[in-house]
Amino acid sequence: MRIGTVALTVRDLDAVSRFYQQVIGLTPVESRPGLARLGVGETVLLELRHDPAAPVASPRAARLFHTAFLVPSRTGLAQWLLHAAELGVPLQGASDHLVSEAIYLADPEGNGIEVYWDRPSETWTWRDGMVEMATLALDLDGLAATARTRDWSGLPSGSCIGHVHLQVGALEPAEGFYAGLLGLEVVCRYPGATFLGSGGYHHHIGTNIWNSSGAPVRTGPTTGLADVEIVTDAGTLDTVRSRLSPEQSTELGQTRLPLRDPWGTSVTLVAG
């Protein structure tokens, strides 16, 4: 499994779209009234859905914690960092997670963003099926010094959404959905958080209760996360479908399977 397209509901489509193009480095792939689809090359990573009347999501709700844009190299992350510094973009944090180095910020409507690169997977430490991760201070000056040029022309080829981190109301039912139903593997337990991955990756989905413990089910659309697309193969899609109750299931052979997690967050499995 891997993350495909993340969809956000936004109030100011022009401002948010401009931010992801100018700051993050995405390029337009498709545009029509009320919708902007942005990505790298022809690959759509982010879909922005315009709803100027959408209520603003509560910081304590079950919602997006961050969308994590993965760049292929440390040099690429360093060049992005210099680009963000030249624009004067405020950062919210920077961490060395042992498996990766990450920089955090938010878009104009408060949606969390991570830009990161992965250290080579052979350097990751695994014990009993769990990967070692930590939150250490990141040496931003040392990272910036690795940039080969200050020229910036957007996210480099091969960039993708490496993972999506969610705020949830409780960790156990989140694990029941993302591991028990979808089949992701729990790869790390952290105070107040669980990380789940596929194929030996350090995580494709993160869940935490740091701000949202006890959050109720969504009662209607709000700003922020509208859908997370998870790309898998047709066999896995049918396996997940077989675990659903008859009223939840869809016909075999369909290439998209729309689901909702225990808090009403939309997750769509796609065969691809």
List keywords for this structure.
globular, Glyoxalase, 272 residues, metal-binding, alpha+beta, 2,3-Dihydroxybiphenyl 1,2-Dioxygenase, domain 1, nine-stranded mixed sheet, seven-stranded mixed sheet
Q: Can you describe what's shown?
A:
It is a single chain. The chain is of the alpha+beta class. The chain has a single domain, classed as 2,3-Dihydroxybiphenyl 1,2-Dioxygenase, domain 1, CATH 3.10.180. It is 19% helix and 38% strand. It has helices at 13-24, 74-87, 140-144, 171-181, 234-242, and strands at residues 2-10, 27-32, 35-40, 43-50, 63-70, 93-96, 100-106, 112-118, 126-127, 130-131, 136-137, 160-167, 185-190, 193-197, 205-208, 224-232, 256-260, 266-271. A nine-stranded mixed β-sheet has the order 11-6-7-8-5-12-15-14-13. The model has no long low-confidence stretch (mean pLDDT 95).
Name of the CATH superfamily = 2,3-Dihydroxybiphenyl 1,2-Dioxygenase, domain 1
Q: Strand order of the main beta sheet, please?
A: 11-6-7-8-5-12-15-14-13
The helix fraction, in percent, is 10-25%
Q: State the domain count.
A: 1
Question: Helix- and strand-based class?
Answer: alpha+beta
CATH topology, what is it called?
2,3-Dihydroxybiphenyl 1,2-Dioxygenase, domain 1
Return the CATH class. Alpha Beta
How far do the termini sit from each other? 10 Å
Tally of strands: 18
Protein name: Glyoxalase
Keywords: Metal-binding
InterPro entries: Glyas_Bleomycin-R_OHBP_Dase, Glyas_Fos-R_dOase_dom, Glyoxalase_1_CS, VOC_core
GO molecular function: lactoylglutathione lyase activity; metal ion binding
